[in-house]
Amino acid sequence: MNEIPLWASESFWKKTAIWVTAGSFLVLVVLTMDSLSKTSAGSKRVPAYSVINKKIDYQYDKDLHKFMPVIGGDEFLFGQKYSEEQALQLVDLGKKTTQAKNCMNCHTLLGNGAYYAPDLTKAWLDKGWISKEMREDMMVKFLMDPEKNARTFGSNRKMPNLKITEQEAKGIIAFLKWMSSIDTNGFPYNFKTINAEE
Ligand code: HEC
């Protein structure tokens, strides 16, 4: 009687399948934990929500050869200093509003979404808000009525009125300010910030 070689036996392949599946599952769990720790607020690349109390810039780092967020001293949002908890609530309102109103249908956030309208990753730092003194007010007005306050530089595209309340607009702005502080590995490249002329 011929012996069946190990590699040709059914039980060998069954065991191998079980080990490979279990091993891959373990690797997946480890990678998931690692991603979560690196993408949660308060980690090295993703600042805590209270960063909305700070001045944020985005500058070219000659050593790293890429644009990096630069977090400076106090620069309160809407003239108010937010505790970590208050900042979380405001940013959360903004994030949920962007989801509820499906901003990604036209915009990209951190590079994800559609390409009809500008990427919003660094929208807080956009030169288009003219000056830091005017920025918050302009952003609230724009978000609440983008048709009347259209900016449409270089394109004829207009953002429709999405019936955003003032509080939601403030939440979105906090969300955008926080997002602009995230180390996105140099994305977007060569973005001219509102601070550039200073
Ligand atoms: C139907 C498409 C559409 C949707 C949906 C949309 N936008 Fe826009 N948005 C635009 C267009 C087009 C522009 C550029 C026109 C302008 O600036 O007037 C724009 C511009 C902006 C800007 C200025 C960008 C910059 O870099 O200065 C911000 C901020 C913004 N949108 C936020 C939002 C938010 C937040 C939402 C969801 C609540 C949203 N948009 C949903 C089309 C859209």
Task: Give the arrangement of secondary structure elements.
Elements: H1 10-39, E1 54-61, E2 66-74, H2 84-100, E3 108-109, E4 112-113, H3 132-144, H4 166-180
Antiparallel strand pairs: 1-2, 3-4
Helix pairs in contact: 2-4, 3-4
Describe the protein in words.
The protein is 38% helix and 11% strand. The chain is of the alpha+beta class and 198 residues long. Helix 2 crosses helix 4 (166-180). The structure holds heme C.
Given helix and strand content, the structural type is alpha+beta
Count the E strands: 4
Helix and strand sequence: HEEHEEHH
In CATH, the architecture of the largest domain is Orthogonal Bundle
Report the principal-axis shape. Answer: elongated
* Strand order across the largest sheet: 1-2
* Helix content estimate: 25-40%
Count of separate DSSP helical elements = 4
What's the short story on this structure?
The protein is 38% helix and 11% strand.
Top keywords for this entry?
Cytochrome Bc1 Complex, Chain D, domain 2; 2 domains; 198 residues; 4 helices; alpha+beta; two-stranded antiparallel ribbon; binds heme C
